[in-house]
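Researcher: Please generate the 3D structure of the following complex. Treat every line as part of one assembly.
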Amino acid sequence: MSLTEWEEGREFPPKGTFIEVVEVGSRDGFQIERDFIPTDRKIEIINGLIDSGVRYLEVTSFVSPRAVPQLADAAEVMAGIDRSKGAYLTTLVPNLKGAERAAASRADAIVIVCSASETHNAKNVNRSVAGSLAGFGEIIRFAHDAGMDVVGGIGTSFGCPFEGDIDPQAVLDLAKAYADLGARQVTLGDTTGMATPPTVRRVVRLIRQELPDLGIRLHFHNTRGIGLANVLVGLAEGVTLFDSSVAGLGGCPFAAGATGNICTEDLVYLLHESGYETGIDIEKLVKVARRTQQVIGRELSGQVMKSGQRLQLYDAGAVSTAAG
Amino acid sequence: MSLTEWEEGREFPPKGTFIEVVEVGSRDGFQIERDFIPTDRKIEIINGLIDSGVRYLEVTSFVSPRAVPQLADAAEVMAGIDRSKGAYLTTLVPNLKGAERAAASRADAIVIVCSASETHNAKNVNRSVAGSLAGFGEIIRFAHDAGMDVVGGIGTSFGCPFEGDIDPQAVLDLAKAYADLGARQVTLGDTTGMATPPTVRRVVRLIRQELPDLGIRLHFHNTRGIGLANVLVGLAEGVTLFDSSVAGLGGCPFAAGATGNICTEDLVYLLHESGYETGIDIEKLVKVARRTQQVIGRELSGQVMKSGQRLQLYDAGAVSTAAG
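Model: Done. Output below.
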């Protein structure tokens, strides 16, 4: 399918539409950092994001501290978050024990994850897709009884580093399984940055057509540089929730030096400049991004935090230029 | 104007359309490098690009060696280029003397540049816009007499770091002046990365409407991370020529650490994945990008050269993953 086929069925949200930016940096970003980030620095960054207007965050994972030592402080982080502004806090959980810890931390929602690719799921959680789904019923029932929403995470939705292309039907089947189990939202994970305009369009269109009441979050990685182009495609298909990571935190386990999730402040810049609203103060957000880079201690991939805002003007007497 | 308004008048080129990727790295990229890149390294990179299938290159500038010492070897570089594959070689020239040097180097075309912003033009070339245009007649006549095409460069087409927003009418006026002087193509320079989906759409639509016979190249910088999203918008408006820089060479004189031109191999990846043809072998191109990074001696911003191709598959037994 070529871009031409955007002609049919596109439905960009109208100007002024609120687009929900879902911050996932403290979960998907922090987890790949080798050096432990002090708990109070994590809390400072998350509360900075909330202060800048971010209202939907995937805060952490309640996974085994042995598996991911960086997130061993998940409960302390959750306890330190400013809830006075109505932030909606989700946490990733791999099993019932994780869901219990999430409930104890007063999470608003849990995210459970299964890959559309059998090989990736086996590698990631040592289960078949059917095996993962079989375990989810109990977790979801527990979550609902505890008053938590459930988001169904679908890894490798746009391609798998072991299997290659993923049949959109496999993504739809998983989305349908989640919906049948009571999830009202799925997040389509571009786990290793394989999403492209045609794959995004195909998968989103299929799910929206077959499961019109299911909420869709798009979770893009910028591994191959086209994450924000994919956001435009998602918008064109009517999606209004996008996952991103402050300062471009994160990486790719398959490619040293490759970038991770799309960058929150660059996404917000694109959305605002394109006529959408996010409720986020981008100046404050950029300060949090710069602070995040300082805490991490190496250059991160976000661009707007380096360039400044579009209409930040310069004194013509003070700067030298170059043609072009 | 919001993205919604893509609904009206979009005309993506059909699947399989040839999109011309114009390599500008050896001009717009090299010129900001402080350390002199040996002439034979420059030639090696340019010939590598041609070998990978690139056919339209902005090779160098015939500017004063005192002003830009990095490009003092412009004539030697031109002399070393492989012309056996039919590459179309353009060079930037600031004045008649530059055009004479370009002709002596057997350039196929010259690029002349004027900014849509009076303040930027004054700062860049110490002339008013009218003053620049007054000098162009003689240069263009010389070029045509010498058998060279002329491309009209329009700097700050999507915003100026001194003046802010640029009236699309000012860009149209310059494009019209170039057309009246005999140029058949303009390149719309996003000099400091201020282009956004609505600014791109407005300017391109106006020029295509008023000057339907004038060719349009879009020259985006990725300063704020949305360069490839802007490419999608340009495609949606029917543009089929895009400037880019191998490995993401280049930078921004206003922001240390900000990226430069959009990256050639990331652009080619986006185009191929979206159903377009470029005539470029991306595997060969990525090798040239990695070699370019090695020659420059620091990490450049290109992503595909770090991540590898989308369908480069991994052995599930050999790699550890992380959820999400």
